[in-house]
């Protein structure tokens, strides 16, 4: 008769939430593999580690539902053990232990050594950059800092991730070199706040120096910037972007709102005039830059006049990429003391209005690309198309370039020159010139 002790343990890591969580799961998997463990990402395994998100209500619901799904599988004998880590676990550990006691153990965001220990693995400090990447082979996230020192009223990230802590330039270069040796060609720099990078370690905002070091890494062809905070943005970064062809003319800079009253209540440390000037400076220094932003509608006290001001500003700014979220009332944040006074239906209507405006802007900007040639990278083949991106597009969130696969063979992870032949709101169609 087979007994459980004869079954080889396979650890399945399940990732929810943002790219920072993807990175954390990859580090966890790299540590497990170094200890000789059999580890997979979102496949079958008898031991499950769920890396949760606790940022806003929808993400929390998804995390809780995923935990409940795996607890049910444990009860039915499909899996043996369920462990939970990440932001939800950091933020609500006592509540989770009480409400879902069938999870074997909960771990916070800083408890990787403890998690590894219960999985029978040792935490190894020397494994800088040793990750099992879960993204397509040609790109990877590079987390340059952890935590956040900003006081934004609506945001729970400091509760879950702690104070800002930059990684050293030397460690990040080493990590980039290891990624490049494994075939990675595009680095997507992530943090809770890129703008703050280096202040703790080097006593100055040092993102430009980091970029100068990373462009020297052989094999890396594109470097992309995500999650830059607008207040105190180091303008020398734009000069490096303009000068260095490896740095994509692209920046993700979450602006959240534009009404001075709302920005003040959000504790963003800026106003409409400063924000508008910053964006104009971006376009003056790097004329073909693609700017991605995110906005929040339905924040406490947002009047119809505030929303109309935001709408007109979005029309005027013509962002290349934009996402819009409805406000989520998060306990233990500064804004939680305010009345969540915008009805859900109004929040949803406002978000839809913003995205309708953006859809039209995106269509118009894409029409201007028809007939032009761009360098693209191929991420995957899907259906009858090879799917690629320009330097102005980040994976999963931005435009994609579709190339008919019936008469062309393209290699995933390779770069090509492509002529745009047609365009819709969020997709470009192209023919490759050098296949």
What form results from the Cα inertia axes? Answer: globular
**Order of strands, widest sheet:** 6-9-10-11-12-13
Uncertain segments = 1-6
From the alpha-carbon coordinates, what is the Rg to the nearest angstrom? 23 Å
List the helices and strands and how they pair.
Elements: E1 10-15, H1 19-34, E2 38-41, E3 47-52, H2 57-75, E4 81-86, H3 87-99, E5 105-106, H4 112-118, E6 139-143, E7 145-146, H5 157-161, E8 165-166, H6 169-181, E9 186-190, H7 199-202, H8 207-214, E10 222-225, H9 236-243, E11 247-252, H10 260-266, H11 272-285, E12 290-297, H12 304-317, E13 321-326, H13 344-367, E14 373-382, E15 385-389, E16 400-404, E17 415-423, E18 427-432
Parallel strand pairs: 1-2, 1-3, 3-4, 4-5, 6-9, 9-10, 10-11, 11-12, 12-13, 16-18
Antiparallel strand pairs: 7-8, 14-15, 14-17, 15-16, 17-18
Keywords:
435 residues, alpha/beta, 6-stranded parallel β-sheet, 5-stranded parallel β-sheet, 18 strands, 35% helix, globular, disordered N terminus
